[in-house]
Amino acid sequence: MVALVATLVLAACGGDDADELVVEQPRIGATPVGSDAALYFGVTSPLDDRLVGVDTDVAGVTSLHVTGSADGTMIEVDEFELPADTQVLFEPFGDHVMLEQVVRELEPGDEVEVTLRFAEHAPVQVSADVSQLYELAWEDS
Question: Which of 5, 10, 16, 106 has the fewest CB atoms within 10 Å distance of its CB?
Answer without folding.
Answer: 16
